[in-house]
UniProtKB/TrEMBL annotation:
The chain crosses the membrane at residues 6-32. It comes from Iris pallida (Sweet iris). It comes from the Eukaryota. Keywords: Membrane, Transmembrane, Transmembrane helix. This is Dynamin-related protein 1E.
Amino acid sequence: MENEGVVNIGGMCSGFATYSGFTYINIGFWMFKMYKKYIL
């Protein structure tokens, strides 16, 4: 039971980290497009 809890928490943390990573990549890509559109 305890080991399963640790695995579930680890899976949630890794999943959240992956989701956050994709979110930051999308924001960075959007900002880059805006930068190119208005600056260049």
